[in-house]
Amino acid sequence: MSRFRMYPNSVQHAGLSEQCRHARYVWNLALEQWSLWRRGRRPAPNFTQQCRQLTEARAACQWLRAGSQTVQQQALRDFDHAVRNFYAGTRGRSTWRKAGQREGFRVVGAQATRVLKLSGRWAQVLVPKVGWVRFRLSRPVPATKSYRITCDQLGRWHIAFAVIPPPIAAPGGGAVVGVDRGVTVSAALSTGELLSCPQLSEAEEARLRCLQRRLARSRPNSNRRRRVKTAVAKLLARARDRRKDWVEKTSTDLARRFDIIRVEDLRMVQMTRRPKPEPNPEQAGKYLPNRRRAKAGLNRAILANSWGALVRRLEDKAAGRVEKVQPAYTSQTCSCCRHRAPENRESQAVFRCVACGHQANADVNAAINIAAGRAVRARRETPARVPLKREPQLATSP
Fold first, then answer.
1. Cβ count within 10 A of residue 372
2. Which of 23, 173, 219, 315 could form a disulfide with 105 if both were Cys (CB 3.0 to 4.6 A apart)?
3. Is the full-model pTM beyond 0.85?
4. How far apart are the C-alpha atoms of 69 and 23, rounded to whole Å?
């Protein structure tokens, strides 16, 4: 999608917020109807039946009638697509939409194509029931028939035109690169490059901790708590924007430089799952320590380095050129002699082979193994035992 920053005035801001409330209300009503269905009951209303119910609700409710019917019907169509994807197994179960989270609505039809260019930097789009709203031209506007308007927790409005950009063409030189993702180094390439995802600075981290302590001392529903929550959201949004910018630039650079990109086949959902509690068999109602806090810190570090987002954008931009390799023992195997042993990795960053003496950065060594696409056996490599041959014994006379 081509995403642009919108700059509505105060009146338009109120109109866009009202459209978001209408879309959220209709979505939650459709979700409530679907969630009430049980085996043995009549099926939940489909999209056509819900559109008829929406027409009756608009005739009875003035608040819904004041909004755009196009936006409300599109919310029903989005929910219908979400349900179909859920039954097909491609998406998870639909959840409730809350105020201040996932705010937005979609417009489809002839109105989506009404974009007027004002200058080299500004343009405006016609939003139903709101009027012409300006947005910043950071790139050419693509030809599309739908767009989605969203609002984040900081109150920033964005418009995204639904268009699938073509994948980046391969350079054609046959270059292959391996990408090893880590916590200390976000992405290590087999070429020796070490890439780090930008995070908050030390001063910003200190300010975030101070704001979080201040938020814990604030009274609920107070003006001070509202201001502190906004300040915390600004810092978190800044870190999120930096990660997204790094992922886009890194994925584009890799797709342009290499023909084949090999990454580890990691299961992000299982890796970032919280540990299960371990009951204490000696004391009823008590639990054994399961290092939950340490695992939570590791999960935050994994998510902060955007492991999944990097591979997802690589698959979008370099379609058909991303290969996933089994990650087993890639960090313990020497890229020169292929000897594998836990003693090869002295520390988090130093790799020293105990067999051939090869020394390199541990992440780069793993990236070279990933680039080679070597299938690593599950057992530790040990020299094969040669059966001893017994010397024939001479027959002796009794």
1. 17
2. 23
3. no
4. 10
